[in-house]
Amino acid sequence: MPRALPGYVEVLPGELERLDQWAAALNDKQVVVHMAARAHVLSESESPEQVLETFRRVNRDATLALAAESARRGVKRFVFISSIGVCGNLSGARAFDEQRAVEPVTPYAISKFEAEEGLRELAARTGMELVIIRPSLVYAADAPGNFALLLRLVRSRVPLPFGRVDNKRSLIAVESLAEFIAACVEHPAAAGESFVIADEESISTRDMVRELARGMGFKARLLPVPVALLRLAASLLGRRKMYEQLCEDLWIDTRKAAQMLGWHPSLGIHEGLRRAGASYAKMENARY
């Protein structure tokens, strides 16, 4: 999120499970935007059941405790940052929207969906307004995870095998997500609603690489490898999940946000990716 925030915004970092340490800060607050979550489990020794419970403890249980305390202290609106993973891992030919049945697959997505369900029940019981936001992959020069890996690969100038990957992926620039959260904090029509959100255009992995490279100041080197061959190689190497993330479709229909809130991102995806690439290159150059 942007480093400079308006004076009326108070950021409360902390251990989410230790509500007693900072619950008093909820006094006299009108809106709580809840972004904290566990995204990864670091222990490889945990069973699938233990992994799911680890996610639930933070993403579901601690979230509901925070929301209940917020309602008790008079918070008017609770804005919950969920995940597009609640809708599913892949969209296929039809874009995800708010009407499509949810299909969470990963423990992270399951815990987020269960938090959504619990929050709806709490909001109905207490009268606190609830807004749920399901963002697509958030990108920035300092983004973690898969986007950070892609930035490193592009900057290495190694030829990448995505020349024939013409899929549809939805992303959202961190600046655009911040703008949308602000709209959900303030807009009366957001109360009681859920939104899937992304930049208005989808983009292929091939063009994503091209735009990042342009931002870094060079032309991407893309090999025209058939997608079927990439799929076969991924299956043989046990990297099916990586193949899906890079070559399959996950795109979002954001018309509800536009129609209900009048929201449109101020930054287009092509310009946003070029900026992210340029900022990343500048950061890396400063390190050496």
UniProtKB/TrEMBL annotation:
Q: Which domain of life is it from?
A: Bacteria
Signal peptide location: none
Pathway connected to this protein: Bacterial outer membrane biogenesis; LPS O-antigen biosynthesis
The record places domain NAD-dependent epimerase/dehydratase at 13-198
Q: Which InterPro entries match?
A: Epimerase_deHydtase (IPR001509), NAD(P)-bd_dom_sf (IPR036291)
Matches recorded under PANTHER family: DTDP-D-GLUCOSE 4,6-DEHYDRATASE-RELATED
| Protein family according to the UniProt entry | Belongs to the NAD(P)-dependent epimerase/dehydratase family.
- This chain belongs to the protein called UDP-glucose 4-epimerase
Species this protein is from: Pseudomonas knackmussii (strain DSM 6978 / CCUG 54928 / LMG 23759 / B13)
